[in-house]
Amino acid sequence: MPDYDSRLVELYDLDNPDGPDHDHVRTLADEIDAQAILDVGCGTGLLTASLVRPGRRVVGIDPSATMLGFAARRPGGDEVTWMLGDSRDIPDGLFDLAVMTGNVAQHIPDPAWQRTLSDIHAALRDGGVLTFESRNPRVRAWATWSGAAPTTRATGHGPMREWMDVDELEPGRVLLTAYNEFTDTGELVVETVTLEFRAREQIEQQLDDAGFAVAHVWGDWSRTPCTDDAPIMIFEARRR
Predict the structure, then answer these.
(1) CATH 3.40.50.150: which residues of the chain?
(2) I want to staple 100 with a disulfide (CB 3.0 to 4.6 A). Which of 4, 104, 205, 231 is the partner?
């Protein structure tokens, strides 16, 4: 797949800062005394590097070489093992905790999603925990993403004008097209991504099929039980 534009990767942490989602993962890691953690789809590694503790093994894996290069340069990045690839490239050694943040689960289409769950199951010790979040399709968040007026912001490469289009390809599948124009040069960078909006029942069944027992489904990062109108669904499952 084409890699991300490095100028946009530089902005990733500004658009996706450290926050309650990362606090949730760090707290869970400490609660279960995780000595080995796997971050699947780690991106720029903002969360991954923050999980480093003395005596703890942390592995971040991502299909973007540009994002991994950025991750390796961040403070604490030299304490993480960075792997280029997807779940098929998870290194040997059992993990206590596997995480997918930033709605990574929605970027993985079927049947690759089922394979990803199976690969993570194989990488966890018995009783190991998998946690990830996914947007609730009942809320139809994508309906608010398209049609907004373009905005412009300063970057290290001059002003950038940005806007997006959203197309619902079929129920539960959305094509997002992001436009990024560097106005000093007129260069337009276009990125497309297909997002999968899976229902809670579907995800729970897929986890069960992959050998996981769902322990919790939260509706926010404060661990409020998930309701039908919760904007996100935060899954916590244990390897059977």
Answers:
(1) 6-136+198-239
(2) 104
For the domain made up of 138-196, give the CATH fold: S-adenosyl-L-methionine-dependent methyltransferases (2.20.130)
Instruction: Please give the single-letter amino acid code of residue 125.
Output: R
- pTM of structure: 0.96
Q: Which of 59, 53, 198 is nearest to 120 (CA)?
A: 59
pLDDT tens, 51-108?
999 999 999 999 999 999 999 999 999 999 999 999 999 999 999 999 999 999 999 9
Distance CA 71, CA 87 (A): 18
Q: Report strand pairing: 57-62 vs 36-40.
A: parallel
Instruction: Specify whether the backbone of 144 is left (phi greater than 0), alpha (psi in -120 to 50) or beta.
Output: alpha
Q: Which CATH architecture has domain 6-136+198-239?
A: 3-Layer(aba) Sandwich (3.40)
**Alpha carbon of 17 to those of 21, 85, 210: distances in Å?**
10, 24, 31
Distance CA 216, CA 132 (A): 11
